[in-house]
Specification:
It is built from 6 helices and 5 strands. It has 183 residues and is of the alpha+beta class. The longest helix has 15 residues, at 24-38. Residues 1-24 form the signal peptide.
């Protein structure tokens, strides 16, 4: 079993949010995955209500990236910087262990927005990389509604080391999100 299995289960738990309000088949897939993760296929968990766009509303995803996931990211993006995958290369530049690519962590922000608001169109993202993020640690990415104006929603974004609470990546995101009609 991978070292990040607990974080993987937290990610699966996010499915209850991202499938809520989407297609019935997507909802059923999410329920089946959650039931399988909990070991209880007979009684799937109750889904939370649809996300709201009120200022201050926050959505968090906790994730631990294992070395094999970093290898996959490097292969997919062509990021051949060895400090991400090779301990000796990381040590040669003064790092204790390989570190995550900053953009891999930043990719959690659109994942949260797109998963909580299916059909959202990501318009922009500003980023400040605050410190190194060692491979194998857990990170909590949070997007918080700052302002909603029509279909444009601005989010504050922060990714923190889940153990220390230290900010690793900060910024803001802007997305187009169709407002749900009230019945």
């Amino acid at each position: 079993m991978r070292a990040c299995s607990a974080a993987t289960l937290q990610l699966v738990g996010l499915i209850s949010t991202l499938t809520n309000g989407s297609s019935a088949s997507g909802r059923q897939i999410g329920l089946r995955l959650l039931a399988a993760a909990s070991g209880d296929a007979a009684s799937p968990p109750v889904l939370p209500p649809n996300p709201q766009l009120a200022p201050g509303t926050a959505f968090t995803l906790t994730k631990c990236f294992a070395a094999d996931e970093v290898d996959s990211w490097a292969a997919l993006t062509g990021d051949s910087n060895p400090i991400h995958v090779d301990g000796a290369a990381a040590a040669a530049v003064g790092l204790a262990v390989p570190v995550l690519p900053g953009m891999l962590l930043a990719a959690l922000f659109p994942a949260i927005i797109g998963s909580n608001f299916p059909g959202a169109v990501y318009l922009s993202q500003t980023l400040k990389f605050k410190q190194y993020a060692p491979v194998g640690h857990s990170y909590a990415a949070t997007v918080t509604v700052e302002k909603a104006s029509g279909s444009r929603v601005r989010f504050d974004t922060v990714c923190r080391d889940a153990t220390t609470g230290a900010a690793v990546v900060e910024g803001t995101a802007l997305a187009l999100i169709k407002q749900q009609q009230q019945s």
